[in-house]
Design goal:
It is built from 23 helices and eight strands. It is an alpha+beta fold. Among the domains are: about 135-270, RNA polymerase sigma-54 factor, core-binding domain (Arc Repressor Mutant, subunit A, Orthogonal Bundle); about 285-410, no CATH class; about 415-485, Homeodomain-like (Arc Repressor Mutant, subunit A).
Amino acid sequence: MAYVVLSQESCQMAEPFLSLIQSQRMSQVLAPQLRQSLELLQVPILELRTLIQQEMEQNPTLDEQALEGEQIEIEPALNSPEEDQAFKDEFEKLAKLDDEWKDYFTQNQPRGPSSDEVARRQFFLDSLTTPKSLQQHLMDQLSLSVLTPEEQQMGEMIIGSINEEGYLTSSLEDLAASAGFSLEKLRDALTLIQEFDPIGVAARDLRECLLIQLRRLGKADDLPGLLVRDHLDALGSRRFPDVARALKVTVDQIHDATRLIATLEPKPGRIFASESTSYVLPEVVIQKVDDEFTVVLNNDQIPRLHISEHYRQLMADESTTAEVKNYIREKVRAGMFLIKSINQRQQTIYNIAKEIVTVQNGFFERGISDLRPLTMAEVATVLGIHETTVSRAIANKYMLTPRGTFEMKYFFTPGYRNADGVSVSNKTIKDTIATLVAGEDPAHPLSDKVIVDKLKEKGLQVARRTIAKYRDELKILPSHLRRGYSK
């Protein structure tokens, strides 16, 4: 091999050229098994069952335990070592041909479907492809972004709080308080996600959704953007002459701008909405037993896995080659990690649900008026885990309670203290606002200031701007528009 040595002078005169340079740097990379464990923790129970079945298809050492009453054990009564060895030899031969004979009989069975056919048909039905959801579409785009682990977690939390219409249903303040993230960093993460497809996604209200779309069209600073930004309520009431006078433009110009606004998508997430009915399967069931609420996990949908006895015998068989043993050892290790991850997932969800029951006992007894403030950081501290683990564990999980079925994240909310020093959830305050508005006189709707005074009478000190924010989240119009709407 020949080497070319360049002097310092020749290097200075040489033209720029490409070169390969080796360097060492430290970076955090999730191991495949750890990534699998996190995925199992985050997915809901129906998706978990599908993932487990896929793993069983890829890992032959995994078997599903029979349900109670179906376990069949064969203990041959052999009287001599020769007969025992003969049975062992015959069993090993049959074990090696087991898969081939199963396939043969499955294809040639003239009568009803075999258990293998039923299992394959069920796996086929469970594996039917479904349209990609809005959250999956956004997560795919998030995974392509260059982010730090913290930014990735914030993005996942924001995406998890986006409803099927494409709107961010939780305020950044509530998300920051729940997970302990910086509010400024959450704003940056939200700005990033608002650049994703579909255009207008992750907006906090209709005004922001339309402005995001107008910004993409280069019309945010023109008349359509001005109308959406400052006169959207007036447009909704079709007070076009008033808006035209305020902006010193003609009514025809207002009509032209309004026609452009009408082409925008007010619900950017609905293009991902499935026409099929969505079914919710609770992960946790809360039951009242002897005047106490207990937590019961829904384990019926999770296959009960164990390592196949057949492959255990192959590992113990001296005639098994080293290559086969290495393959089995690798698959057994992967199978044991999967079983451990499933058990850890269930235990984590159980512990979180138990803490929810402890804090929200009043809610299960009396309803939303007794819903208490609770943050993920508080639960994480009690359980000795990280708040992002809590966030993953409650994502897309549901609880069946005596009060109905709720998402687990429903019970995590900041709050206030009333005059008696008792903590009150902001969901309770929202429910109180909705109740007050529902019972108001249509001819004299309650203003935000009046609502503040009525809450103060109940011992709740809530700022007027907070009332306005909660009213917007509840999709309740301002008082002057409610009066016009009532008419």
